[in-house]
Amino acid sequence: MTTSDFILETRDLTKVFGGLVANSSVSIGFKERQAHAVIGPNGAGKSTFVNLLTGHLPPSGGQILFKGANIAGLPAHKVTRLGIGRSYQKTNIFPSFTCFENARLAAQSRLPTSMRFLRPALSYAETNRKANEALEAAGLAARAERVAGTMSYGEQRQLEIAMVLATAPEILVLDEPLAGMGKEESEKMVALLRDLARRYTLILVEHDMDAVFAIAEVLSVMVNGTLLESGPLEQVRASKAVQDAYLGDGAEAY
Ligand SMILES: Nc1ncnc2c1ncn2[C@@H]1O[C@H](COP(=O)(O)OP(=O)(O)OP(=O)(O)O)[C@@H](O)[C@H]1O
């Protein structure tokens, strides 16, 4: 497989915290408009990997190629503007603002500086449009004027997805989007993510294996900071190494 097959690719990506190697030479390719889940037990290095991909941590070594250009070490706000949006493990909304205001703030964060200050009228209309589109895509159009903090937990997590969408990303990096959700909320989020996977490149870190198998086409398995296996769902599921190291005694263990 050549580089051009991937919209995003890591090569020998490494992160060391003091004496601890949290990511060790991790090389994973992400294809355009494919849902790709990164799984592994607690402490495997998944969040570190996400933080490296999105510029929230500088790597200790290796490359991150976005459309062939190395973006390793770029700060998070620049990575966002390139079109790599992320959500967080914990809800990251402004609870006293409405859904629309939350989405509009997110949309503004992606505007180039010249748009923000030189053409306020245009940027205002543009950010409003993006905010409304994002709420619609995240299934929250009817909630636009609701104060975010008064919504259910599941809807707040949907809003967080809307806020990522409002930044007009090509790639969505979602860190445990189902964390803390009940069954019904999870089912709704899975349906939303399956829908988004048709239009975006989705990189998903998630512990809920039923959700992972329902959403992802490709799986990468991390254990102890290293990449154990990466490939189509069924291939990884059938892998002896993965079964022994991770899925072995039933994925529900994680
Ligand atoms: N900022 C940090 N400073 C020091 N060590 C860290 C830091 N962030 C993560 N680590 C360590 O790196 C290792 C990988 O952690 P990471 O959070 O990336 O794993 P994870 O797979 O996301 O785990 P979980 O599923 O529990 O979220 C762990 O041993 C963790 O303690």
From TrEMBL:
<protein>
    <submittedName>
        <fullName>ABC transporter ATP-binding protein</fullName>
    </submittedName>
</protein>
<dbReference type="InterPro" id="IPR027417">
    <property type="entry name" value="P-loop_NTPase"/>
</dbReference>
<feature type="domain" description="ABC transporter">
    <location>
        <begin position="8"/>
        <end position="249"/>
    </location>
</feature>
<dbReference type="InterPro" id="IPR003439">
    <property type="entry name" value="ABC_transporter-like_ATP-bd"/>
</dbReference>
<keyword id="KW-0067">ATP-binding</keyword>
<dbReference type="InterPro" id="IPR003593">
    <property type="entry name" value="AAA+_ATPase"/>
</dbReference>
<dbReference type="GO" id="GO:0005524">
    <property type="term" value="F:ATP binding"/>
</dbReference>
<dbReference type="GO" id="GO:0005886">
    <property type="term" value="C:plasma membrane"/>
</dbReference>
<keyword id="KW-0547">Nucleotide-binding</keyword>
<dbReference type="InterPro" id="IPR051120">
    <property type="entry name" value="ABC_AA/LPS_Transport"/>
</dbReference>
<keyword id="KW-0813">Transport</keyword>
<dbReference type="GO" id="GO:0016887">
    <property type="term" value="F:ATP hydrolysis activity"/>
</dbReference>
<dbReference type="Pfam" id="PF00005">
    <property type="entry name" value="ABC_tran"/>
</dbReference>
